[in-house]
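for ur thesis appendix - ribonucleoside-diphosphate reductase. copy paste whatever u need, i formatted it the way the template wanted (i think)
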Amino acid sequence: MKAEKTQFSCVACGQQQPELSLENGYCPACEAIARIVREQPEMVRQLWLRLHNEPILPEAVPRSIESEAELPDVLDGKRYRTIDRDRNKWYLSVSEVNGKPVEVFASTAFDRDHELQSRISNLTTITRLISLILRHIFLGEPLTFDKCLKQIQRSSRQKNDLPDMLYGVLSRYNVPRQKSDEPR
Ligand SMILES: [Zn+2]
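the 3d part is after this line
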């Protein structure tokens, strides 16, 4: 009986190889490609676009920002006019990046009513937190406890309104950041 030399197949192309010539499970040719994919994803993106005339993984998050400060000064957007159950007129504005919603604003006539400051600050809290979540979903902005706190704090208009009280309570939990909380 003839002794067979143990062969392994490359995890990418399936070609049979002696075990020693496999690196990370890849044959030499595929390992060269895998290394580029690992170390130079931007080059892969550009090559793919060039060779296939379409973006690679068009569904993937197109880019990542660190904070809202990186948003362009001028954004596309849509404004919707609605009427609530109390017959107040509202304008709901949605700012977009690449057709995705990344910020919301809401305004209504009670903006000018001085007795309704607390309603406005509650409204601001809602839209600021929704915007933070939208940027996380659509722009890959890291979502951190610090940012939640900051948005709640900025929503406050006067001492002891709801966002101010929430900020006070939640700030107690603002311990120094753990290693595992850091963005990837
Ligand atoms: Zn291979």
